[in-house]
Specification:
Blueprint: E1 8-14, H1 21-32, E2 66-72, E3 75-81, H2 89-98, E4 101-107, H3 114-125, E5 130-135, H4 144-155, E6 159-161, E7 163-167, E8 173-177, E9 183-187, E10 190-193, H5 198-202, H6 207-218, H7 221-228, H8 235-247, E11 252-256, H9 275-285, E12 297-298, E13 304-305, E14 317-326, E15 330-339, E16 341-342, E17 347-352, E18 363-368, E19 372-376, E20 379-382, E21 386-387, E22 391-395, E23 405-408, E24 425-431, H10 434-450, E25 455-458, E26 465-469, H11 472-484, E27 490-493, E28 500-503, E29 507-515, E30 522-532, E31 539-543, H12 555-568, E32 579-588, H13 595-613, E33 615-629, H14 633-642, E34 646-652, H15 655-660, E35 675-683, H16 690-697, E36 703-713, H17 716-720
Parallel strand pairs: 1-3, 1-4, 4-5, 5-11, 6-11, 31-32
Antiparallel strand pairs: 2-3, 7-8, 8-9, 9-10, 12-13, 14-15, 14-23, 15-22, 16-21, 17-18, 17-23, 19-20, 19-22, 24-26, 24-27, 25-26, 28-33, 29-30, 30-32, 33-35, 33-36, 34-35
Helix pairs in contact: 1-9, 6-8, 12-13
Length: 724
């Protein structure tokens, strides 16, 4: 395989779940790969490339970023397959970071969903080159024309077909190349290029739009003169300008791909129809790594460093985009090299910064690079180096986490931290058995290193171990890895919301601890007055004892007992807060009074006062910002009201937030989708599964942010239903 940057193409496959991305990668492997990838029936063998489980344990849907390298037309093509489910958006972000172009995979049956439109807009914001592959054309409801129309409506008029499919009555698939002027037929005996078809291909509908798009984007004056004079443009020159057009990020060729009928799946057709043409487009139309803008760099002291040049002889700048663990090899890191050359046994600086908020402490380590390899199918092929522009697998980087920067020791630097979505679905767990407890902490630490969208937290108020995940599918995948990969079985338990208690009104309380059972007795009496403080007031203790009714040495004991009782609660076992306690009187005994006695008396006095004044249960309230397209604002506001929420304001989404949420149209769509941010205050107990419900309510186009807002009284009917 080639390793020079000009001979590498890094492509990320994106699209909604079920669009056929992984199946397409398998067919591309069958088209470009060695014959040992095919089984005895000459069908594409299931691929176990980096990131997947073994074939017999392969999940029904992808849950992680996967990498596979193939050779085509003298180039190395690195295919990065991303999960389509929104729960695994962190893996998608990693693929976008490592790639130089995106291939959007759209199902001809299901069309374009809202999440795909949002992702398209995000790619448009950074000018990432894109193309489209329309799959499932072998399905009875697969309609290329309708799917192309849906893509144009969603992504704009820059979407232009490069090949047109037609199906004959006997099941043969004919692809007409609008750019190449060739017609290719896929049938029972495989792929055949038909002779004397140039005139027919030139007359195909849609060719004019394709040629005009390439001429406009490449600004090729020779092609323009030929076209305006009525001469047919030279296909070779059109192909040469295709990369310029695609690289601008506003011209998007479309290819039909699919599985051949069973009768045509011989050795020559194992890759399905359109796979060869798609590889040709990637090789001829997608930009090389050197043409892709490189991320900005900073030094350890925070100063800005000159951007990386993409020079294989320059200083090393690389990034860990995926971390996984193999039971035999150990930790494996998928690394994209932006500058310099990565070699085995090199000493490198491993830097991780900017993710403290999600539980990843900043760190600077020096490590020795292990073996380098490139995955092809189920095999890892060793390589001697990985120059700028390449992607490789590095083994045994002990401290490197997903998102870390690898740089040279003499000039260390940091790549900017990824913008990752918040994990907003809490899942409380506990070890299934005593043996699992020993493995659980180690397993969670390793999973947190691999998955930047997973946050592990020990709630200090409830003492629960909580996994913050992106959604139900993400949570199930994490629990499955805990059990099957690390042998740490856990049970899901209900998530406990940390409630509190406070006093309803002013009251007085008397605490008596008087015991005499032989020997040293216990004697302590204290009288207190309590009153509620404003929300957030905490606790105040005021000593108003006069005349030495309680010796000064025992005043702190009373306060200690009151604080202990506040931590235990009174009504339902929740901590007390927002109280002022005044110690006004008491009694002591010269022999039987003690520190312990006055602690007990202080707690009893507080309980007596709260029985008289009444207890109010407080629940945590969140400040929630929900960003959705305008058409869903009414539905979101109605849904928040059913959650006992208060809408406190509306405002148009800021430009950056709207772009991340799918506001842009990526090259001339039918119109921008305006978005609004709904500001609300909602009880935390009503928001535990909101990430799932908002996704369903907004068809995958909504997002929200939450942060603590304070505590408010819980409605009495709900408080009365709490266990005493």
């Amino acid at each position: 395989m080639s390793t020079r940057a000009c001979e590498v193409r890094n492509v990320v496959l994106v699209g909604h779940t079920g669009a056929g991305k992984t199946a397409l990668v398998d067919r591309l492997l069958a088209t470009a790969g060695p014959p040992e990838r095919q089984n005895d029936d000459h069908q594409p063998a299931p691929t176990s490339y980096v990131g997947h489980a073994e074939p017999e344990h392969r999940p029904t849907r992808s849950t992680g970023l996967t990498l596979c390298s193939v050779s085509h037309d003298g180039l190395t093509v690195n295919l990065l397959d991303t999960p389509g489910h929104p729960d695994f958006v962190g893996e998608l972000r990693a693929g976008l970071r490592a790639a130089d172009a995106a291939l959007f995979v759209v199902s001809a049956v299901d069309g374009v969903d809202g999440a795909t439109g949002m992702l398209w807009a995000e790619c448009a914001e950074v000018g990432m080159p894109r193309a489209l592959a329309i799959t499932h054309l072998d399905h009875v409801r697969g309609d290329f024309t309708a799917a192309l129309r849906a893509c144009r409506d969603a992504f704009g008029p820059g979407v232009v077909p490069a090949w047109l499919p037609t199906r004959s009555s006997d099941g043969r698939i004919r692809l007409t190349g609008l750019l190449t002027g060739r017609i290719v037929e896929y049938g029972p005996t495989g792929r055949h290029e038909l002779d004397r078809t140039a005139d027919e291909a030139r007359r195909a509908p849609g060719r004019a739009a394709l040629v005009e798009g390439i001429i406009a984007e490449s600004e090729d004056e020779i092609l323009l003169d030929d076209y305006l004079s009525g001469a047919d443009p030279d296909p070779d020159r059109l192909l040469a300008d295709l990369e310029k057009a695609v690289a601008r990020g506003t011209f998007f060729p479309v290819l039909p791909v699919g599985q051949l009928p069973a009768a045509g799946r011989g050795a020559a057709g194992a890759g399905g129809f359109g796979s060869r043409e798609l590889l040709d487009l990637i090789a001829r139309g997608f930009p090389a790594p050197a043409e892709h803008p490189l991320p900005t760099l900073t030094r350890p002291d925070g100063s800005v460093r000159a951007p990386a040049t993409g020079d294989p002889d320059g200083g090393l700048v690389a990034e860990v985009v995926r971390t996984t663990t193999d039971p035999y090899v150990g930790r494996m890191s998928v690394v994209r090299v932006f500058s310099g050359t990565l070699r085995p046994d090199d000493l490198v600086k491993v830097s991780g910064h900017g993710r403290v908020a999600v539980g990843h402490a900043d760190h600077e380590d020096t490590e020795r690079v292990g073996a380098l390899s490139r995955p092809h199918g189920a095999s890892l092929h060793s390589v001697t180096d990985c120059p700028a522009g390449g992607i490789c697998v590095v083994t045994k980087l002990g401290t490197a986490e997903t998102g870390d920067t690898l740089s040279s020791l003499d000039d260390p630097c940091h790549l900017p931290a990824w913008t990752m979505p918040e994990p907003l679905l809490p899942v409380a767990i506990r070890a299934h058995g005593h043996a699992d407890e020993d493995r659980l902490s180690t397993a969670l630490a390793r999973l947190a290193v691999e998955d930047p969208t997973l946050r592990v937290a020990q709630d200090p108020q409830t003492a629960q171990l909580v996994l913050w995940s992106m959604g139900e599918a993400h949570a199930e995948a994490v629990l499955d890895r805990l059990a099957n990969r690390y042998g740490a079985a856990v049970d899901r338990v209900p998530t406990v919301v940390p409630l509190r208690e406070t006093l309803r009104g002013p009251a007085r309380g008397l605490g008596r601890q008087v015991k005499q059972s032989g020997g040293h007795g216990q004697y302590a009496v204290c009288q207190i007055e309590v009153e509620p403080l404003p929300p957030g007031g905490g606790f105040e203790f005021v000593d108003e004892v006069v005349g030495g009714a309680i010796p000064r040495a025992f005043i702190p004991s009373v306060e200690k007992g009151i604080r202990a009782q506040m931590a235990q609660g009174v009504r339902a076992g929740h901590p007390l807060t927002d109280l002022r306690v005044r110690l006004v009187d008491g009694k002591a005994h010269s022999v039987d009074s003690s520190d312990v006695a006055f602690q007990i008396a202080g707690g009893l006095a507080l309980r007596d006062a709260l029985r008289a004044g009444g207890v109010v249960v407080l629940e945590p309230v969140l400040a929630v910002d929900v960003c959705v397209p305008d058409e869903y604002v009414g539905a979101v506001m109605g849904d928040l009201s059913t959650r006992r929420g208060r809408v406190v304001g509306l405002e148009p989404a800021p430009v950056a937030q709207a772009a991340a949420g799918g506001l842009g149209n990526g090259g001339g769509g039918s119109g921008a989708m305006a978005r609004t941010v709904v500001h609300a205050e909602v009880p935390e107990s009503e928001m535990s599964r909101y990430v799932l419900e908002l996704r369903a309510l907004s068809r995958g186009t909504g997002s929200f942010h939450r942060e603590p807002h304070g505590y408010e009284p819980m409605p009495r009917q709900l408080a009365d239903a709490l266990p005493a």
